[in-house]
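thread from #wetlab-drylab

HS: before we spend reagent money on co-crystallization trials with uridine-5'-diphosphate, can we at least see a predicted complex? here's what I'd submit
DV: go for it
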Amino acid sequence: MRGDSVERTAVVVYHSSPLPEPGSGDAGGMTVYVRAVATALADRGVKTDIFTRATSEVPAVVEWYPGVRVISIEAGPLEPIAKEEHRRYIPEFAAGIRAFAMAEGILYDIVHSHYWQSGVAAMELARAWSVSHVHSHHTLGKVKNSYLAPGDEPEPQSRLDGEDDVIRSADVLVASTDDEWRHLACLYLADHDKLKTIHPGVDRALFHPGDRGSDRVRLGLGDEAVLLYVGRIQRLKGIDLAISAFAELVPALDRDVRFVIVGGASGPYGEIELERLKELASRLGVASKVRFEGPQPHEKLPTYYRAADAVLVCSHSESFGLAALEAHACGTPVVGTPVGGLSYIVADGASGFLSESRDPTEFAGRLKTLLSDDDLRRDFGVCAVERAATFSWATTASEFHELYDRLLGEGLAEACTC
Ligand code: UDP
């Protein structure tokens, strides 16, 4: 109920339910983010209702965590739909949320949307409920288009227009990094007073260093060198560069080496990309050394991170890069491109290596340096844990809590003092 302190928020994740396990389809970093922030806010006494479009007959209301409900609203067919079909059901979706709130007699204090389509739905909710609208983009169409992987589909104008609408209308735009802040300010000309940077976190109770040897045994790995990729399989993720670098590394290293790839196909071209990567590994003669594990339960990922000597993140662009942060929290160095949050997470030359160049030979060189030197790897691992220790979901949630309270009490200008 609208007092001085926020009690209940409506979170909108229109196209991507937080219920499925992350790692394939639409479920990835944003799923982990929305779950973690809602849980940490609930621990602070703030209740969250997460609204998503119903894609199956799952119960309409799921109590996901004490104080966190996931509410599936019927809008359009009860099945997954193509990306370009989503926009037409937004009005029905927003109307369904309003009807739900009215039927339950709930007054939300804040509406917080994730990704641009949710932002469009939330614009209407914020108006109808006379509450502040906080929006997190996670990815931006113009940024994706500027760093498009060869052969990847550009984001359509309808998305760019929708993002513009949300950027003009929302009260606060939350960026995960200062880079995203700059993208919003420079590419989208967002009002600086609306922009606030809040870093995502990591669950350090789950992701922490441990006994690498027993983790390897659990995964059927021995004492060979092990490289790891964790994330959805999409062209944007640059896994082709990782495989090409790996193929150059194999003959250059005087020990055996494996590349373990965790995650499933995502997006309309995900399956095609998965096949393309398998073909690439065969063509480069390393198929027998590359293990495609498919999506893995989030709780099992520490085992993978700890078993690995290095995690590869070669994305063309990233919203933040939670996999890199989780790897560091487990004490594993990261070799990757300086995209999204990676330059905040990875200390280049101290907890991993970051390279602007997308040259496989350069990546193979960095990997060889790391995999050939036990002391260097150990030092990088220690630094990685120190870096990760500066991030936590509790901190992220407390910054959101403060932002929401300020919006409720003092209004926009105060809310956005960064
Ligand atoms: N993930 C998972 N299981 C998998 C693959 C990935 O739980 O099989 C999780 C991973 O732990 C990370 C998230 O999915 O938290 C991916 O987030 P990231 O920011 O790296 O990439 P995004 O999905 O945002 O592109």
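DV: The longest strand covers residues 47-53.
HS: ok that's useful, forwarding to the group
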